[in-house]
Design goal:
- The protein is built from no helices and ten strands.
- By secondary structure, it is mostly beta strands.
- The two termini are 26 Å apart.
Length: 158
């Protein structure tokens, strides 16, 4: 299976994250977001983003997650409110990412810098559990509005 870029400029695209499979559930781009102004500090809440694709015959649900680097891991809505399990219908991509429901590592027990790796265990209703070694995204420190500076392009620019 090959990887391709997400633009028409022919540039390389190296998406962050761990990729895995547990039962029929594909896990893609699992990573901890890196804040734009430095590492996550002890006591911070850090977003954890991941995509799922359920290849099974039955829907599944992400019930939760845990890690030793945070007090807890919650499934939250885009506004940070705690919500219940995430339904993973068959044959559909479910993206837990910025601006949508995602996982939140609450009350970090240590500093996490861009490029650091931590273990996170995901729990599914049908597929079971899987422990992933995921990294904190290496920061780009690019202002999303800085599209007029040479070499800087907003991620949303087409």
């Amino acid at each position: 299976m090959g990887a391709t870029g997400c633009g028409s400029d022919g540039g390389d695209y190296n998406p962050p994250g761990a990729n895995a499979r547990v039962g029929p559930v594909l896990i893609r781009y699992a990573h901890i977001a890196e804040p734009p102004d430095g590492p996550w500090e002890k006591g911070d809440d850090a977003p954890f983003y991941v995509w799922f694709f359920n290849q099974g015959q039955e829907p599944d649900r992400l019930l939760g997650a845990e890690t030793t680097v945070a007090r807890s891991v919650d499934i939250v809505d885009a506004d940070g409110a705690v919500r219940g399990p995430v339904v993973l219908p068959t044959g559909k991509l479910v993206e837990l990412e910025k601006g949508r429901a995602h996982l939140l590592l609450r009350d970090l027990r240590q500093q996490i810098r861009g490029g650091d790796y931590v273990w996170v265990t995901l729990r599914f209703e049908r597929a079971g559990e899987i422990a992933l070694q995921v990294h904190s995204q290496v920061p780009t420190y690019v202002d999303e509005d800085a599209t007029d500076a040479p070499g800087l392009t907003s991620p949303s620019a087409q």
